[in-house]
Amino acid sequence: MTGHPPAEFALAVVHEPPSLRVRVRGELDYDTGDDLVAAVTGILADDAEPLDEVRLDFGALTHIDAPGLAALLLIHRRAAARGAVLHLDNRPDVLERMLQVTNVLDHLTGPAETGPGSSEARDDGEVSGTGSSV
Q1: Closest-CA residue to 77 (of 86, 68, 88, 67)
Q2: What pLDDT, on a 0 to 100 scale, did the predictor assign at position 4?
Q3: I need a labelling partner for 99 at 20 to 30 A (CA). Which of 14, 107, 117, 127 fits?
Q4: Where are the domains of the chain?
Q5: Percentages helix, strand, coil for the chain, rounded to the nearest 5?
Q6: What are phi and psi of 31, to 5 degrees?
Q7: Can you say whether the dihedral through the CA atoms of 111, 113, 116, 122 is positive or negative?
Q8: First-residue to last-residue Cα distance in the chain
């Protein structure tokens, strides 16, 4: 087999109220989804600091599977309960496809920032993502 080993999973968390930004690197899957949920919800649970937005930056994401998507849905639920808007920024094609196939893009996101590796930037700075049914 000539495949490359998967990229190591890592999170970089920047908490500057009223914003939380988390950069995700590597694979978001069964083994790593709980780490992302714990990092975000640990800060969301802190009532001392108000949060208006949670920005997840996926510019270095290499793979996502169904448990990874479930982690995003849980983060969305917990952010919304706290009154914060979830943004999925710099979405690579692998994430964009997952969001479109499952038809949860509009449910999960506010406007996204675009960057390298994200697809079809629109004039308003949001990555297009019309849902599709399968």
Answers
A1: 86
A2: 52
A3: 14
A4: 10-108
A5: 30, 30, 40
A6: -80, -20
A7: positive
A8: 32
Amino acid at 131: G
The CATH architecture one would assign to domain 10-108 is 2-Layer Sandwich (3.30)
Phi, psi for residue 8 in degrees, rounded to 5: -65, 135
Among residues 96, 84, 76, 7, which one has the least CA distance to residue 53? 84
Extract the tokens encoding 24.
Answer: 């995700």
Tokens 């849905």 correspond to 73
Say how far apart CA 110 and CA 87 lie, in whole Å. Answer: 5
CB 88 within 8 A of CB 108: yes
pTM exceeds 0.70 for this model = yes
Quote the CA–CA distance of 51 and 66 in Å, as a whole number. Answer: 27
pLDDT exceeds cutoff 70 at 27: yes
Express each pLDDT in 110-127 by its tens digit: 555 555 544 443 333 333
